């Protein structure tokens, strides 16, 4: 069977509504693209599989690499998970990341590790894991800029699958968001599997976030599971368990992902007191994140930029220039870093240096068709006029 790939955009139509009192109003509608729909021919599963991919803002304008969040029940969770990732990353609370949603064909077949007589197609988890490892990972990591940090979101049977993967293949994902996991499947198979695995030391460097809503039949098995984790205290496994009493089985995923992301990345935000110590303290903060997550965590361009403007607002001009200069060092291909450095020099009264950096921003912005080109030109014109006025 020859492997083929089909790709199309995922669109959501933005519609404009009008009040009847304004009969002359003119409306328009445009498509908002949030990702790509890709069809892969799987040799492992013997069928075509659809995936949906969300890329972070600015992906095409950088060479940055990103963690990847994989979603089970992909069609159900793609939109809210992508929005959660976008919202939290825009506010600096988590890193930007790629989101990959796996659309279901037969979720009972794919997510269950054992076959049950009354569910004749069940028990296909091993094959599904092989599809993810041997076909999906190579495709995503071969076509997108990824970091060696994978996250998995699973709900219900998907949550049970996530726990199964964690204990059978602990290096496959580094973080698991497991909502209402149905570990009762096949006479508590997953719970018994965990008990068995815990008899020997395991090589963990993982994060596990478990949640349930108001779901009485889940309480006892998950209580046994979490008590086991509490008793055994497996090295290298950071785990959390939360009961969301105001949510039910259907609504628990949305808040779970938000809260779980904030818990995983609780140390991500750099405190103002640390930033005020200068670039060395900032670099030390990101070195600690590198040690925690196991890959090189660079200082994000937007974070350095924000720290620079905050310093200008607090009249700490030298500190602002220090941050802006470091941004130019880290992201020399960016247009905005030069404009920001120009503003730092202008605030310091160093107008010639400001003009030089505004010119770089305008030239780079012209070449790339940057959306903020008009702003960069305005800054250049303003500082040029100041210089001319000073000479006259």
Report on this model:
The protein has helices at residues 74-90, 107-111, 125-143, 157-168, 185-197, 216-232, 252-264, 272-275, 279-293, 301-313, 317-330, 336-347, 351-368, 373-391; strands spanning 5-14, 30-42, 47-54, 66-71, 98-102, 146-155, 175-179, 206-212, 237-243. The longest helix has 19 residues, at 125-143. The protein folds into two domains: 5-15 and 28-264, Rossmann fold (3-Layer(aba) Sandwich), CATH 3.40.50; 272-391, Serine Threonine Protein Phosphatase 5, Tetratricopeptide repeat (Alpha Horseshoe). The termini are far apart. The chain is elongated and about 90 Å long. It has 14 helices and nine strands. The protein has a nine-stranded mixed beta sheet with strand order 1-2-3-5-4-6-7-8-9, with helices on both faces. With 392 residues, the chain is of the alpha/beta class.
Individual helix count? 14
CATH fold type of the largest domain: Rossmann fold
| Structure classification | alpha/beta
Strand content: 15-25%
Low-confidence stretches: 12-21
Can you identify the CATH class of the largest domain? Alpha Beta
Q: What is the correct CATH architecture of the largest domain?
A: 3-Layer(aba) Sandwich
- Arithmetic mean pLDDT: 91
Instruction: Classify the oligomer.
Output: single chain
